[in-house]
Write a structure and sequence with these properties.
This protein is α/β, with parallel strands linked by helices. Helices cover 37% and strands 23% of the residues.
Length: 272
């Protein structure tokens, strides 16, 4: 193999994009998103999170802070909340070779020797919003479509019906019994925020952490009949050689950076 040749030497046949709806979006009701929370974790690794606000609200909050007013939950209009959760699991037994060029061989071999186990990603998108009677579109419905397209473009996902039904049955039971709490239904997020409070007090004083805390304080105060929570469980299927099923080359769009970009852009549509 020529050292200058591109690393992508395997024939690749991509299946048709995944067409199933991950979850049913509630009936359009003129919802406007006023705040969004995104969380991404490579299973077994640290998680990252971010809080988003529309540009107009962000400017208003900055103005209030400049005037010396404390930012409180009352500043975030919230009549409804929605939690969209994805559990994306690698198929056990398929291992990445990132690059076949000689200088990258050590990285490839380390990945093969240390990562021979199931892994995957955990993604959570939570939104708070208000109702607008004159709205011609429903932003939660739009968000659901953007999530569907963004994830389907990055990975090939076999929807696991049974696992998803069980997860959603648990979500519905907790909501109907008024027992849904983000620390119960989203323990990975509760742990991240709680550990920061206990073990990283200096980080707990940062604006990003405080805003995340306020976001979930608001979510927990909402009547649970105004909250929807859906979980989609799937299997992340890599492109296979067909001859050596352990040997494939990861596309750039199948990396952690691509997931971060999707989460970063997912709310751009609502910045008006």
């Amino acid at each position: 193999m020529s050292h200058a040749a591109p690393a992508r030497i395997l024939s690749r046949i991509r299946p048709e994009p995944f067409a199933r709806t991950f979850f049913e979006s509630p009936q359009p009701a003129g919802r406007k998103i006023t705040a969004g929370f995104s969380y991404l974790q490579r299973i077994g690794k640290a998680g990252t999170h971010d809080v988003w606000f529309p540009s107009a609200l962000k400017q208003k909050l900055e103005r209030l802070k400049a005037e010396g007013e404390a930012i409180e939950p009352k500043h975030f209009p919230a009549h409804w909340a929605a939690v969209r959760q994805f559990e994306l699991l690698h198929e056990s037994g398929n291992h990445k070779i990132y690059d076949l060029q000689p200088e990258r061989l050590q990285r490839a071999m380390l990945d093969l020797s240390k990562s021979m186990r199931a892994g995957g990603y955990r993604m959570t998108i939570a939104t708070l919003g208000r109702y607008e009677e004159t709205a011609k579109t429903d932003e939660l419905e739009i968000l659901d479509r953007r999530l569907q397209v963004g994830i389907a473009q990055m990975i090939h996902m076999l929807y696991l019906d049974e696992a998803s039904k069980q997860a959603n049955a648990g979500n519905r039971t907790l909501l109907s019994e008024n027992r849904s709490d983000y620390r119960r239904v989203l323990p990975h997020i509760g742990i991240v925020l709680g550990v920061t409070d206990v073990f990283c007090p200096e980080r707990a004083q940062r604006p990003g952490h405080k805003i995340a805390r306020q976001f979930f304080d608001i979510l927990n105060r909402l009547p649970q009949k105004h909250l929807v929570h859906d979980t989609a469980v799937g299997l992340q299927l890599p492109d296979l050689n067909g001859e050596n099923h352990w040997n494939y080359i990861a596309d750039p769009e199948e990396t952690l950076g691509a997931f971060n970009r999707v989460l970063g852009f997912i709310f751009d549509k609502f910045d008006g």
